[in-house]
Amino acid sequence: MVYINGIGSVTIQNQEQLAIPDISETRYIRCQDPDFSIFIPQMVARRMSKIIKRAIASSKMALADAGFEMPDAIISGTGLGCIEDTEKFLTAMIQNNETLLQPTHFIQSTHNTISSQIAMQLKCYGYNNTYSHLGISFESALLDACLQLQTGTCENVLVGGYDEMTPNYHQMLSKLNFWDGCFSGEGCIGFVVSNQQNSNSYCKIEALELFYNPKNAEEIEQHINNLLKNNNLTKVHLDAVMLGYSGNPSNDCVYEAMNDFWGAIPQLAYKQFSGEYFTASAFGIKLAAQILKTQIVPENMCRKNEIRTPIRRILFHQHFHNQAHALILLSSC
What we know:
By secondary structure, this protein is α/β, with parallel strands linked by helices.
């Protein structure tokens, strides 16, 4: 069994209170950064980009929450990687006619820089991997972490979803109607997942499945039924489902097509709090884990049907362009 034993995050939300952000003037919201000097020496931090500092801070928060300092492995999911450093390097290359380029922005522009920098700060020499699969990046990293634990290769894994959004990239995606009906967010969220439960455990990960390019809603429903059946469960054992509604009609129609399938099961949504970005699903898993631990559902999360306690199981379902789908079954400890 896999347990979520620690969570740390740097998001667009205030750490103390979850609220729907005001997007009346802008559809682009950046993270509320903590005091990074608490987590990283200032002389070291001055050469780091914001996403690196956020990833290190959220990782150290998660480890402290779990009650230990050193993971056996570090696995990251990121859709864009260090896009801000990539932009800076390419801009300087154009402006300076490919001469006198600073190596720092190039070194920190690769996607696996995030996992590497976390490992160097922690002095962790174990398994280190990065998944960059756009909207399914975090789930791919979490699947790898579960496999490492289930095969006995590791006992504690630091796994996270890390993404930032820049003004230039936001504008480019706007031209593709990526933000139609939704707003852009960003975030860095780390989890400590372990093969043993402890006093701080949030929940269990009972099952995780990724599948690709379903033909219709019926095929998605079949995947869900099979996942539940393989765990000796049916829909009646679900206390809620958490879905990746974003406000974009082309995204949300996939979930709408399954309303009859869910019936009276309460439906929760999370992107109204996080905004849309490639690893926003990490934010949703964080909220689901906190709900299972505290038995408290934040205001404005219920999209359909009121949820009631006790909350024992939440099925998380999200997709990217109705091609890559993820199902994650979480249960209380």
